Amino acid sequence: MTLLPALPIVVPLAGAVLCMLLRKNIAAQKAIALATSFLILLVSLVIMAQTKDGTIAVMHVGGWRAPLGITLAIDMLSSVMLLLVGLLAVGVSVYTLFDLDAPRTRFGFYPLMLILLMGVNGAFVTGDLFNLYVWFEVLLIASFILLALGGEKPQLEGSIKYVALNLLSSALVLAGIGVLYGMAGTLNMAELAHVVQQGERGGLVTMVAVMFMMAFGIKCGMFPLYFWLPASYPTPPAAVTALFSGLLTKVGVYSLIRVFTLVFSTDPEFLHALILWGAGLTMVSGVLAAAAQYEIRKILAVHIVSQIGYIVMGLGLFTQLALTGTIVYLIHVIIVKTNLFLVAGAIKRIKGTYELRALGGLYKEKPGLSILFIISAMSLAGVPPLSGFFAKLTLIIAGLRMESWAIVATALGVSLLTLYSMTKIWAYAFWKPAPEPLPDLDPMPRAKWLAFLSPMIAFTVITIALGVCAGPVFDYADAAAGQLMDPEIYIGAVLGGAD
Amino acid sequence: MTSIIFRTATRYMFPPMLVFSAYVLLRGHHYPGGGFVGGLFAGSAFSLYALAFSVAEARHILRMDPRDVTAAGLAVALLSGLPPLFSRHAFLTGTWWALPLPSGATLDIGTPLIFDIGVYFVVFGVLLTFVFSLGEE
Amino acid sequence: MEVVLAIVIGALYGGGLYLMMRRNLIQLIIGLGLLSHGANLLIFTAGGLRGDVAPILAEGATKFAVTPADPLPQALILTAIVISFAVTAFALVLFLRTYQTVGTDDVDEMKETDT
């Protein structure tokens, strides 16, 4: 079918247009957003069914063949990312049915969310470097507005830092694109890879690679470029933060993986070693910063940084096993982190605060919510048999095989500190008695409460399933990593394949 | 910003600017021009009007909310990608139809033109959304 | 020509980064603008400054008589300009709102989110 690879972009765009046309009708917007999210999930499942045997779905937009036109190419990594976007979209849409204030909905939360999803999906399916930049800008503009929507003082201050640093990184991407085009005469990633592999311009390639590393490093929150993240992520409502933490930094990570496995894979002694250093420092600085926080949302936000470190670690090690670990970790962390933010949102919903010192006794009051939290938190820390354990184990085995003792030691130590942060939230918010009893701000009937919790229940079930049925997940990730390690497959599919 | 010269000049310049924006839009397929520039022209006509009179009056003569215009433009641009699918071509492939005119000549209408019209309205709507929200402070 | 453009690009980048590091919001925005102009000009220069004719074949011809200009960098720059236009417009609105809510345009005063 000729339209399939474009559907992840077209579906959310169509949903956004419908939502914008029905600007006044909030109920219709909610229905459209929910339907669109399910449709995105469905499309991603169909795409996954087509690509899971290792074929790369390629589409030449407008009939302009590669390398002249813009190519969409979906390999196994892209299609698993699309699936995660679908899951997240459904989860967050359901959550917002219950917990999103009216002014935000009126001001266009749903169209913006769908445009954000379009940008994210576009970045995952595109095979063209400049097109990647364009999708980045699409999702950035949507995220700028989502972040600032509501206009509270901390939100606006956070937005300024977010906007300034992300635009700086976009300018860097653009400059890198310019130099690459001057060098190779193309921006199609497959052909770029081909040209770089011929390899006469080693020094220039390394320089551009570092530019891209900086630019995507800012976007994904790598050390020492992550300062915008703790300033901005904890400021908007939980639904928005959940969406951001699951998707935005992960697009940065995806771009790093794509570019540094496909195009800049010729000089791993320097480039990937640099990434590995960045990964280690990212883990440590993120987890240490989180240890000092006493607000649930801030702890979780700062932890995003440290999780990025783990994901990037696999790329830095640059073996098939390490990339397998990276992919499993990506799947794991997107699900778990989003879930944790949603749980935090639920706590705020019933208690009105994120402050650990003010909270307490939630375990007695809401045992269901507590179980949802503790499973995700333990999974994040890497307690067996949950998803995080296997992901971390793979990365550590990969590190041991490469004899990179320092990164292995760092990963293990950071894991312990993550456990510390998670038990801190557990002990303060759920376990200890409340310093002053906080009333339940929004007592819901049981059925509504269950419906409110349903996305979190679903995500928790997925987390457990990822751990219990780790086998198929690993087979898939291993095959995807195999595709990444052999750029010839991608190049052949894009440049040589039939329409 | 309420000088009488500026207001009178705006009154006279407003219609030609809109006509010119349509001209630039239609010219765009083979020559410099197109939806983006055309949309900017039309948007600046309304911005000028908002400067000379007031944002409220500019909104009044626009009759629609600029955000609706943006949405309509996006819808048009999106729909322009669909026709090639019916002839089993890739999404967004340029497709042309020849309309016979009464005079005997034919008029070529293509999906790129429809796409450009969508872009025109998107740019117009987005520009005015920003200008109006800045001007209403 | 390349040398002149290289100097201009350097000046744009230098000026842009300098302004971004100032404490004033308006200077931050102008700095971002200069930076994106610098990047656009870099694409233009790196894409090769050759050819004075438009890359449109004459009717019936199959080859260019003289090397034409490369259209792709121009298309890229056009796209980038459009994007930076939208982003700058949004940033202006955001900065104005921030100025009204926070009551200052000094970036150093915005410490609410720093702890």
What does this molecule look like?
- The complex is a heterotrimer of chains A (499), B (137) and C (115).
- Chain A contains 21 helices and 2 strands.
- In chain A, strands 1-2 form a two-stranded antiparallel ribbon.
- The longest helix of chain A is centred in the middle third of the chain and has 32 residues.
- The mean pLDDT of chain A is 88.
- Chain B is mainly α and 137 residues long.
- In chain B, 68% of the residues lie in helices and 7% in strands.
- Chain B is built from 6 helices and 2 strands.
- With 115 residues, chain C is mostly helical.
- Chain C has a single domain, classed as Helix Hairpins.
- The chains are: A mainly alpha (499), B mainly alpha (137), C mainly alpha (115).
- Chains in contact: A-B, A-C, B-C.
- Chains A and B meet through α1 of A and α4 of B.
- Average pLDDT of chain C works out at 85
- Give the termini distance of chain A in whole angstroms: 10 Å
Shape of chain A: globular
Portion of residues in beta strands of chain A equals under 5%
Unreliable residue stretches of chain A: none
The CATH topology of chain C is given as Helix Hairpins
Looking at the structure, what is the overall shape of chain C?
elongated
- Using only C-alpha atoms, the radius of gyration of chain A works out to 22 Å
Proportion in helices of chain A: over 70%
Q: Would you tell me the structural class of the helices and strands of chain A?
A: mainly alpha
Strand content of chain C: under 5%
Q: For the report, how would you describe the main beta sheet of chain C? A: none
Helix amount of chain C, in percent? 55-70%
Q: Catalogue the unreliable spans of chain C.
A: none
What's the number of extended β-strand segments of chain C? 0
Largest interface: A-C, 39 and 39 residues
> Given this structure, which CATH class of chain C is correct?
Mainly Alpha
The average pLDDT score of chain A comes to 88
Number of domains of chain C: 1
How would you write the strand order of the largest sheet of chain A? 1-2
Number of strands of chain A: 2
